[in-house]
Specification:
Order of helices and strands: EEEEEEEEEEEEHEEEEEH
Strand order of the largest sheet: 9-12-13-17-16-15
Shape: globular
Strand content: 35-45%
Number of helices: 2
Largest sheet: 6 strands, antiparallel, barrel
Number of strands: 17
């Protein structure tokens, strides 16, 4: 999906962001969570050609070459085993063919939280991506964008005035947007992060969710739906990657 109502990100201020591409065209966003691993949405797999999928790291503009840029082929897809081509369990890991070179400013790992508490309604979050910037224009953004959204409680999101149970927003998901529907993730933003400020971390931004593949964008009572990084998903990520702690820079053998 892409960012509706967003602003340009300060170049290389989000060095964990990854553009996932097929045939050199941006398809989805993602986050570098280990030197050889990218976290994204499982729905992205159906949009990618296995043999021609690459990730671009250290990129700000998709059109202009960057001195920090690294292009690495994807070796394997690891969608969550419970994912069934819906928005539920919409989480996937990509194993890269070679390890990214971690450099300050250019390419850095996004450290995942050790545990996650459910977010309360009203919590401020940021969405990031290269997706389309207008619900009517399918063209994606050249520059990485970000926008501010707020968490909306599930009861509201599942109500008749909102999604009315189509889809059902479960405990595995976060509903977030703005009241007027002017800020949202959209086509091309799937797989990107939902970064939220929590009191436990002195209001520092931490990844709380992953942008799920969606249809219509920027509709007031159809806010963005994000896969929530639950303890269950964190355990699955650790098992798949083979790490004990997320702050380790190398995979366990």
């Amino acid at each position: 999906m892409e960012i509706i109502g967003g602003r340009d990100v300060k170049p290389h201020s989000r060095p964990y962001m990854v553009s996932i591409q097929t045939n050199n065209k941006h398809v989805c966003g993602g986050m570098l969570v280990q030197a050889k691993w990218v976290l994204t949405a499982a729905n992205c797999q159906q949009l990618l050609e296995k043999k021609k999928t690459t990730v671009i790291l250290g990129v700000h503009s998709l059109r202009k070459r960057d001195k920090f840029e690294q292009k690495i082929s994807v070796k394997r897809f690891f969608p969550n085993r419970e994912f069934k081509n819906t928005i539920n369990n919409d989480i996937m890991l990509l194993e890269l063919a070679e390890a990214a070179i971690i450099k300050k400013k250019g390419v850095e790992i996004l450290h995942l939280p050790t545990s996650t508490k459910d977010l309360k309604a009203g919590v401020k979050c940021t969405i990031v991506g290269w997706g389309q910037t207008s619900p009517r224009d399918k063209a994606q953004s050249d520059i990485l964008k970000e926008a501010s959204v707020s968490v909306i409680d599930r009861k509201t999101c599942n109500s008749k005035k909102y999604y009315n149970g189509k889809p059902v927003i479960t405990d595995n998901m976060i509903c977030a947007g703005d009241k007027k529907g002017k800020k949202d993730s959209c086509l091309g933003d799937a797989g990107g992060p939902l970064m939220c400020k929590t009191k436990t971390l002195n209001r520092k931004e931490v990844i709380s969710g992953i942008s799920s593949a969606g249809g219509d964008c920027a509709i007031a009572r159809h806010p963005g739906i994000y896969t929530r990084l639950t303890d269950k998903y964190l355990a699955w990520i650790k098992k798949t990657i083979g790490v004990v702690h997320f702050n380790e820079t190398k995979e366990q053998i």
